[in-house]
Design goal:
By secondary structure, this protein is an alpha/beta fold. It folds into 2 domains: about 15-135, Rossmann fold (3-Layer(aba) Sandwich), CATH 3.40.50; about 140-235, Arc Repressor Mutant, subunit A (Orthogonal Bundle). It contains 8 helices and 12 strands. The protein has helices at about 25-35, 45-55, 75-80, 100-105, 120-135, 165-180, 185-190, 205-215; strands spanning about 15-20, 40-45, 60-65, 90-95, 110-115, 140-145, 145-150, 155-160, 160-165, 185, 225-230, 230-235. Strands 2-1-3-4-5 form a 5-stranded parallel β-sheet, with helices on both faces. A 4-stranded antiparallel β-sheet has the order 6-7-8-9, covered by helices on one side. A hairpin with a 4-residue loop joins strand 7 (about 145-150) and strand 8. The longest helix is centred in the middle third of the chain and has 15 residues, at about 120-135.
């Protein structure tokens, strides 16, 4: 796989992706690369976990490895299609012969990319699938009270007033709003917004939440970003 490089994500609509990959190094590489391209990534390490996530949430595109523990990728895709799920699926596999690709497409895959691959091509294929998915893809606008976040336009507004956020602030708010009404822990934020799999023992989260709160809540009677003491943070409406 090619080295990760900075991609111009300013004009690329933000997507919510599900990556089902059991190889830890490959999964870490792809999660980081997709996030650097401005996308939100959930990860499952086996086919059963991938199926559970796919059934529990909406995704723009799924990237599924073919050879997986507990349930292989083709079985996973076939099960989803059998249940009426239409989320676009790109299958990754070291098996790249014509018959292998045909099996993947017949199982319900929308695209099939043999390994090794270049991330640039993978990203382009995923973006194409997301466009093809159209209105069946994941929700693109999150709303909590009078706060609205548009993932495709990369815009945030409250009570009709546009709020300008930095890329990290936007990603942080998007994650909080995607889990509106739920406690979001420091670990969840470190892994999904900062892509850290360890606690750096800094106040980076507190600083960013404070900055975000000053932009989202300042000047409004009802705060939407709340600190849950000893647990984390939550976006919710209806309480002063």
């Amino acid at each position: 796989m090619e080295p990760i490089r900075e991609l111009d994500s300013d004009h690329v609509p933000s997507m919510r992706l599900l990556l089902v990959e059991d190889d830890r190094d490959a999964a870490d590489y792809l999660r980081k690369a997709f996030r650097e391209a401005g996308h939100v990534v959930d990860h499952a390490a086996d086919g059963e976990e991938g199926l559970a996530l796919a059934l529990d949430a909406k995704y723009d595109v799924m990237v599924v490895d073919r050879m997986l523990p507990r349930r292989d990728g083709l079985s996973l895709v076939a099960e989803l299609r059998g249940r009426g799920h239409t989320t676009p699926v790109l299958i990754l596999s070291a098996l790249g012969q014509v018959d292998d690709r045909a099996q993947g497409l017949r199982a319900g895959g929308d695209d099939y990319l043999p390994k090794p691959y270049a991330f640039t091509e993978l990203l382009a294929r995923v973006e194409a699938l997301a466009r093809r998915g159209g209105p069946q893809s994941a929700d693109t606008v999150y709303r909590v009270a009078d706060l609205e976040l548009d993932r495709l336009a990369h815009q945030v507004s409250r009570a009709g007033q546009e709020i300008v956020l930095q890329p990290r602030e936007f990603r942080l708010l998007e994650y909080l709003m995607r889990h509106a009404g739920q406690v979001v822990t420091r670990t969840m934020l470190l892994e999904n917004v900062w892509d850290y799999h360890f606690d750096p023992q800094t106040n980076v989260i507190d600083v960013h939440v404070s900055r975000l709160r000053s932009k989202i809540d300042k000047g409004f009677e009802v705060p939407l970003i709340h600190t849950v003491r000893g647990a984390g943070y939550m976006v919710r409406a209806g309480q002063k």
